[in-house]
Amino acid sequence: MGMRKGPWSAEEDHILISHIQTHGHANWRALPKQAGLLRCGKSCRLRWINYLRPDIKRGKFSEEEQDSILKLHQSLGNKWSTIAARLPGRTDNEVKNFWHTHLKKKVHNANISGYSYTLQLQEAQASDGNGLASPSIVFCDAKLEENIGNHGSCQISEEMEFWYNVFIKSGQK
DNA sequence: AATGTCTTCAACCGCCACCGA
DNA sequence: GTCGGTGGCGGTTGAAGACAT
């Protein structure tokens, strides 16, 4: 009762930061009362962890970070905190949001209208000096293969490049 | 310029696990 | 063993800005 909700003001941020810097955050539930904030402990904790912590890394996710999220999500599922723990400076909330707004679409598009495809390293490129090779496409659906063949550079070329970066460069097939 | 639609992301909610009494 | 308090997690929401018409 009497608790504030919604976006945090700059003043509230300042109060929370200075309180944690001088007293720490041993007890989140007691913290707002001690600091003089009209927020619940959970809200203070979330604000600190997701936004105010000094080691937060903000800004766009790098290609490497995106690759890591995809690979980790593939093996761990929606374990956002576990995934975030492997990305220094990133929070579970940030990773989760990025997944839902960017990566989920890419994964979805990779299975266009129910078509599935896989990437394979071309045998002939096995001798590639740096171990990298351009991806070839093995379509699981003959109709899609036919369509792609008919249209030359197709809509999924960007997707192919993306998955190439994710899987092929990391040595997966 | 006005209005509608879509996208993004900070914040909230409910649930669960853990811990000490 | 159980109970209450607390922290942490994942799913979801909604405000604000971006973009399209």
Automatic annotation (TrEMBL):
Matches recorded under CDD domains: SANT (cd00167)
Record SUPFAM superfamilies: Homeodomain-like
Top-rank taxon, per record: Eukaryota
Pfam families (alphabetical): Myb_DNA-binding (PF00249)
Keywords of the record: DNA-binding, Nucleus, Repeat
UniProt GO MF annotations: DNA binding
Location of this chain's protein in the cell: Nucleus
Every Myb-like domain range: 1-52, 53-103
Residues covered by the HTH myb-type domain: 1-52, 53-107
Positions of transmembrane segments: none
GO cellular component assignments: nucleus
SMART domains attached to this UniProt entry: SANT (SM00717)
Principal subcellular localisation of the protein: nucleus
Listed name of the protein: Transcription factor myb4
Organism: Pisum sativum
